[in-house]
Design goal:
With 160 residues, the protein is an alpha+beta fold. The chain is built from one helix and eleven strands; from the N terminus they run αβββββββββββ. The protein is globular and about 40 Å long. The longest helix is centred in the first third of the chain and has 28 residues. It has one domain: Sandwich (Jelly Rolls).
């Protein structure tokens, strides 16, 4: 019986991913341009879905979890932004530097992970001549909305 229950959950999750993948990718395409990306920053939506109660997460109704792979080209920038919910980022390859609105930087390498809180205004940069690959999970994204909120460049911080 347990096996059937797991299979039902997997089929339900697969259906949710398929149903919401288009909406999630459209949300990414409709990003405002307060501080645009520079160079090459390419997201690929891996899956989008809503969580129901009882899955072990404190999910807010009316929100999705979005999973994406990002490829950040040499000397490229994400532009200044934040996210509507917590965001988990894992560095698959390359070196990725994140600047926060206080202009302090933290650099992450392969195998490292970090969390961005919704209140965190930041810019991610590939400051190398190589490519950076990131795996990103966006929590608390409004259904039909974008996992990214653009922000202007903070005063006194010359990083773009």
């Amino acid at each position: 019986m347990e096996r059937t229950h797991k299979n039902t959950r997997l089929r339900g999750a697969a259906a949710a991913v398929g149903a919401f993948a288009i909406a999630g990718s459209l949300g990414l395409a409709a990003v405002a341009v307060a501080t645009p990306s520079t160079g090459t920053v390419s997201p690929v939506i891996v899956g989008v879905g809503s969580m129901s109660k009882g899955m072990g997460f404190n999910a807010r109704p009316g929100t999705n979890t979005v999973i994406a792979d990002y490829t950040v080209g040499p000397n490229s920038s994400t532009g200044w932004h934040s996210h509507p919910g917590k965001t988990l980022v894992t560095v698959q390859s390359g070196t990725f530097t994140v600047y926060h609105d206080n202009c302090r930087a933290r650099t992450y390498g392969p195998g490292e992970a970090f969390v961005e809180l919704p209140s965190s205004v930041h810019v991610g940069r590939n400051e190398t001549d190589g490519t950076v690959k990131l795996g990103v999970v966006f929590f608390g994204v409004p259904i039909g909305g974008s996992p990214r909120i653009d922000h202007p460049q903070p005063e006194g911080c010359e990083v773009t």
